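Sorry, explain these C-alpha coordinates?

***
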Amino acid sequence: MVKRDERRTVDAGSLPYRPCVGIMLINKDGLVWVGNRIQEVDTGSPLTWQMPQGGIDAGEDPREAAFRELKEETGIHKAEIIGETKDWLTYDLPPHLVGHALKGKYRGQKQKWYAMRYLGRDDEFDLTADKHQEFSEWAWVSIDELTELIVPFKRGVYEQIVLELGPLAKPA
Protein backbone atom coordinates (compact mmCIF):
# COMPACT_ATOMS: atom_id res chain seq x y z
CA MET A 1 0.00 0.00 0.00
CA VAL A 2 1.27 3.47 -0.88
CA LYS A 3 1.29 5.63 2.23
CA ARG A 4 0.03 9.21 2.30
CA ASP A 5 3.48 10.61 3.05
CA GLU A 6 5.13 8.93 0.01
CA ARG A 7 4.04 11.72 -2.32
CA ARG A 8 5.26 12.92 -5.65
CA THR A 9 3.96 16.09 -7.18
CA VAL A 10 1.72 15.60 -10.20
CA ASP A 11 -0.39 18.33 -11.79
CA ALA A 12 -3.89 16.82 -11.69
CA GLY A 13 -5.07 19.20 -14.42
CA SER A 14 -2.63 17.61 -16.87
CA LEU A 15 -4.18 14.16 -16.41
CA PRO A 16 -7.36 12.80 -18.02
CA TYR A 17 -10.34 11.16 -16.34
CA ARG A 18 -10.43 7.37 -16.52
CA PRO A 19 -13.48 6.11 -18.45
CA CYS A 20 -15.34 3.83 -16.09
CA VAL A 21 -18.65 2.12 -15.35
CA GLY A 22 -20.36 1.53 -12.04
CA ILE A 23 -23.12 -0.82 -10.98
CA MET A 24 -25.85 -0.31 -8.41
CA LEU A 25 -26.87 -3.95 -7.91
CA ILE A 26 -30.32 -4.23 -6.33
CA ASN A 27 -31.72 -7.43 -4.85
CA LYS A 28 -35.35 -8.61 -4.71
CA ASP A 29 -35.78 -6.85 -1.35
CA GLY A 30 -34.68 -3.47 -2.76
CA LEU A 31 -31.29 -3.50 -1.02
CA VAL A 32 -28.05 -2.40 -2.69
CA TRP A 33 -24.84 -4.47 -2.87
CA VAL A 34 -21.64 -2.91 -1.48
CA GLY A 35 -18.18 -4.39 -1.09
CA ASN A 36 -15.47 -3.53 1.40
CA ARG A 37 -12.63 -2.53 -0.93
CA ILE A 38 -9.16 -3.94 -0.42
CA GLN A 39 -7.02 -0.79 -0.14
CA GLU A 40 -3.99 -0.47 -2.42
CA VAL A 41 -3.37 3.15 -1.44
CA ASP A 42 -4.12 4.96 1.80
CA THR A 43 -7.14 7.15 1.06
CA GLY A 44 -6.93 8.84 4.43
CA SER A 45 -10.43 7.61 5.30
CA PRO A 46 -11.64 4.59 7.27
CA LEU A 47 -14.58 4.32 4.84
CA THR A 48 -13.75 1.60 2.32
CA TRP A 49 -17.11 0.39 1.02
CA GLN A 50 -18.28 0.96 -2.55
CA MET A 51 -20.42 -0.49 -5.29
CA PRO A 52 -18.77 -2.44 -8.14
CA GLN A 53 -17.02 -0.22 -10.67
CA GLY A 54 -14.15 -0.40 -13.11
CA GLY A 55 -12.53 0.79 -16.29
CA ILE A 56 -13.89 0.52 -19.80
CA ASP A 57 -11.52 -1.28 -22.17
CA ALA A 58 -10.62 0.35 -25.51
CA GLY A 59 -13.51 -0.13 -27.95
CA GLU A 60 -15.75 -1.68 -25.28
CA ASP A 61 -19.40 -0.67 -24.99
CA PRO A 62 -20.14 0.72 -21.49
CA ARG A 63 -23.01 -1.76 -20.97
CA GLU A 64 -20.73 -4.66 -21.83
CA ALA A 65 -18.10 -3.22 -19.49
CA ALA A 66 -20.67 -3.07 -16.68
CA PHE A 67 -21.49 -6.77 -17.01
CA ARG A 68 -17.78 -7.68 -17.29
CA GLU A 69 -16.87 -5.64 -14.20
CA LEU A 70 -19.77 -7.11 -12.24
CA LYS A 71 -18.57 -10.64 -13.07
CA GLU A 72 -14.92 -9.83 -12.28
CA GLU A 73 -15.61 -8.13 -8.95
CA THR A 74 -18.49 -10.22 -7.59
CA GLY A 75 -18.40 -13.47 -9.54
CA ILE A 76 -22.04 -13.13 -10.60
CA HIS A 77 -23.67 -12.63 -13.98
CA LYS A 78 -27.37 -13.06 -13.23
CA ALA A 79 -28.49 -9.45 -13.49
CA GLU A 80 -30.41 -7.21 -15.83
CA ILE A 81 -30.07 -3.49 -16.45
CA ILE A 82 -33.09 -1.57 -15.17
CA GLY A 83 -31.74 1.98 -15.41
CA GLU A 84 -28.72 4.19 -16.07
CA THR A 85 -27.54 7.66 -15.21
CA LYS A 86 -28.49 10.32 -17.74
CA ASP A 87 -24.96 11.71 -17.94
CA TRP A 88 -21.44 10.65 -17.15
CA LEU A 89 -20.47 11.50 -13.56
CA THR A 90 -16.96 12.58 -12.56
CA TYR A 91 -14.94 12.75 -9.39
CA ASP A 92 -11.43 14.03 -8.75
CA LEU A 93 -8.93 12.22 -6.60
CA PRO A 94 -7.77 14.13 -3.53
CA PRO A 95 -4.33 15.73 -4.10
CA HIS A 96 -2.43 13.12 -2.05
CA LEU A 97 -3.72 10.33 -4.33
CA VAL A 98 -2.99 11.98 -7.70
CA GLY A 99 -0.02 10.20 -9.22
CA HIS A 100 -0.57 7.12 -7.01
CA ALA A 101 -4.16 5.83 -7.27
CA LEU A 102 -5.51 4.63 -10.62
CA LYS A 103 -1.97 3.59 -11.60
CA GLY A 104 -0.94 7.26 -11.44
CA LYS A 105 -2.38 7.93 -14.90
CA TYR A 106 -5.63 9.74 -14.08
CA ARG A 107 -6.95 12.71 -12.12
CA GLY A 108 -10.14 10.83 -11.25
CA GLN A 109 -12.88 8.94 -13.02
CA LYS A 110 -15.60 9.69 -15.56
CA GLN A 111 -18.33 7.13 -14.86
CA LYS A 112 -21.52 5.82 -16.44
CA TRP A 113 -23.63 4.13 -13.76
CA TYR A 114 -26.15 1.34 -14.27
CA ALA A 115 -28.85 0.07 -11.94
CA MET A 116 -29.13 -3.71 -12.23
CA ARG A 117 -31.61 -6.10 -10.69
CA TYR A 118 -29.90 -9.17 -9.23
CA LEU A 119 -31.60 -12.38 -10.37
CA GLY A 120 -29.52 -14.94 -8.48
CA ARG A 121 -28.94 -16.20 -4.94
CA ASP A 122 -26.59 -14.76 -2.32
CA ASP A 123 -24.46 -17.92 -2.26
CA GLU A 124 -23.46 -17.29 -5.90
CA PHE A 125 -21.21 -14.34 -5.03
CA ASP A 126 -17.50 -15.14 -5.33
CA LEU A 127 -15.17 -12.26 -4.49
CA THR A 128 -12.18 -14.34 -5.65
CA ALA A 129 -13.60 -14.98 -9.15
CA ASP A 130 -10.98 -12.74 -10.77
CA LYS A 131 -7.19 -12.94 -10.30
CA HIS A 132 -7.26 -9.41 -8.83
CA GLN A 133 -9.65 -9.48 -5.88
CA GLU A 134 -11.30 -6.08 -5.29
CA PHE A 135 -13.31 -6.71 -2.12
CA SER A 136 -12.70 -8.48 1.19
CA GLU A 137 -16.39 -8.78 2.13
CA TRP A 138 -19.80 -7.63 0.95
CA ALA A 139 -23.23 -6.69 2.30
CA TRP A 140 -26.71 -5.64 1.22
CA VAL A 141 -27.57 -2.14 2.49
CA SER A 142 -30.51 0.21 2.31
CA ILE A 143 -30.32 3.01 -0.25
CA ASP A 144 -30.56 5.42 2.71
CA GLU A 145 -27.29 4.07 4.19
CA LEU A 146 -25.31 4.06 0.97
CA THR A 147 -23.60 7.48 0.90
CA GLU A 148 -22.56 7.26 4.57
CA LEU A 149 -20.33 4.25 3.77
CA ILE A 150 -18.43 5.85 0.90
CA VAL A 151 -15.00 7.49 0.97
CA PRO A 152 -15.59 11.28 1.06
CA PHE A 153 -14.05 12.10 -2.35
CA LYS A 154 -16.58 9.81 -4.09
CA ARG A 155 -19.56 10.92 -2.04
CA GLY A 156 -20.79 13.57 -4.51
CA VAL A 157 -21.04 10.96 -7.26
CA TYR A 158 -22.87 8.58 -4.93
CA GLU A 159 -25.32 11.31 -3.96
CA GLN A 160 -26.08 11.83 -7.66
CA ILE A 161 -26.48 8.06 -8.18
CA VAL A 162 -28.92 7.90 -5.27
CA LEU A 163 -30.92 10.82 -6.74
CA GLU A 164 -31.10 9.28 -10.22
CA LEU A 165 -31.12 5.53 -9.62
CA GLY A 166 -32.22 5.33 -5.98
CA PRO A 167 -35.95 5.18 -6.83
CA LEU A 168 -35.22 1.83 -8.54
CA ALA A 169 -33.96 0.36 -5.22
CA LYS A 170 -37.30 -1.08 -4.18
CA PRO A 171 -38.56 -4.62 -3.73
CA ALA A 172 -39.18 -6.51 -6.95
Summary: The chain has one domain: 17-168. The radius of gyration is 16 Å.
